[in-house]
Write a structure and sequence with these properties.
Elements (H helix, E strand, L loop, with lengths): L4 E7 L6 H9 L7 E7 L5 H6 L6 E6 L4 H10 L5 E4 L5 E2 L3 H11 L5 E10 L2 E4 L7 E2 L3 H4 L11 E4 H7 L10 H10 L4 E12 L28 H20 L3 H10 L7 H11 L3 H21 L2
Helix pairs in contact: 8-9, 8-10, 8-11, 9-10
């Protein structure tokens, strides 16, 4: 079975990382049909780095800055493959990533999303991401995702027909656009997972999106995805929205953060995050970002001891 993969890489000011990202795709044991890089109005030398790579399967598309979701959608619209492999411009794959995805597709056809485990790359080294341990179709994506990362933006592959049926990523959403897409898919399609850690999520990279928060300008809302009687789906949405709201509050978006706090006040499984958000929303705005960063640093050190 020959699977045609299109790799979509949204790019914005990642000149220090983009070459390594593309090289990790070129090193795959299964060669993709194409690597579509969408430069979303970069102001550094990112596009030059892409042009310097001598490969017939690398294609660069440039556009005015419209956000990561819009860049992904542009790349998907111009791709030719049957499966869309997503990769952020500062992340990378191990050489067997596409081969493992191809194996999942052959063994478990008809899924709406295929994903693998991942590593977290920090300045101190590389650490395993918290993912499920079982290979195959995930029994309940939403319930499993409450405590594990089933899908991330750089470890996921989606059949192109799913994007045609479900629509693309939410234009204008600056945080959580990938999770918004996973929710749309998992409501209607099975999700398949491999615990092999074949993607590398680089939190040490420059220009990470939470540090660049700006007010979102999008008609899409996670709350619109809530459905009566879908308990775990709604709990997962609450988990995602509350996590986003912490960044929004820390960057000064008090009104929006309080709306999210109020909407999800009855959630059952993200109470700690809800309480943290409630406290953060009531602190002076200038205190929030330093305190949130300190909290996250301490939480990471505590979690690392258990690795």
């Amino acid at each position: 079975m020959s699977i045609r993969f299109s790799v979509i890489i949204p790019l914005y000011n990642k000149e220090a990382e983009i070459e390594g990202t593309i090289r990790s795709v070129l090193a795959q044991t299964v060669t993709p049909l194409e690597i579509v890089v969408v430069d979303d109005g970069s102001t550094d030398r990112s596009a030059e780095k892409v042009r310097a790579i001598d490969s017939p399967i690398v294609r660069l598309i440039t556009q005015s800055n419209a956000g990561e979701c819009a860049a992904r959608n542009r790349g998907i619209a111009e791709s030719q493959g049957e499966y869309i492999a997503l990769l952020d411009a500062d992340d990378s794959w191990e050489p067997q990533f596409l081969a493992e995805i191809a194996s999942l597709i052959e063994e478990f056809p008809g899924c709406g999303l295929y994903a693998t485990g991942f590593n977290i790359v920090r300045n101190e080294g590389r650490f395993p991401g918290l993912s499920p341990e079982r290979r195959g179709i995930v029994a309940d994506f939403f319930r499993e995702s409450m405590t594990r990362y089933v899908a991330t933006a750089s470890s996921s592959v989606v059949p192109s027909e799913i994007f045609r049926k479900e629509g693309g990523f939410p234009d204008g959403m600056r945080m959580g656009g990938d999770q918004f897409m996973w929710i749309k898919i998992a409501r209607h399609w099975p999700v398949c997972f491999s615990p092999r850690r074949l993607a590398n999520y680089n939190v040490a990279a420059s220009n990470r999106s939470p540090g660049l928060y700006r007010t979102e300008d999008t008609p899409y809302s996670f709350r619109d995805l809530c459905e009566p009687g879908r308990f775990w789906q709604n709990e997962f949405i609450a988990r995602v929205e509350l996590g986003r709201a912490l960044i929004i509050s820390a960057k000064g978006g008090t009104e929006e953060a309080r709306e999210i706090e109020q909407f999800h006040r009855h959630n059952r499984y993200s109470r700690r995050t809800w309480i943290k958000l409630r406290i953060l929303n009531r602190l002076p705005a200038s205190w929030r970002w330093p305190l949130l960063r300190l909290y996250n640093l301490i939480a990471w050190k505590v979690a690392r001891k258990g690795l």
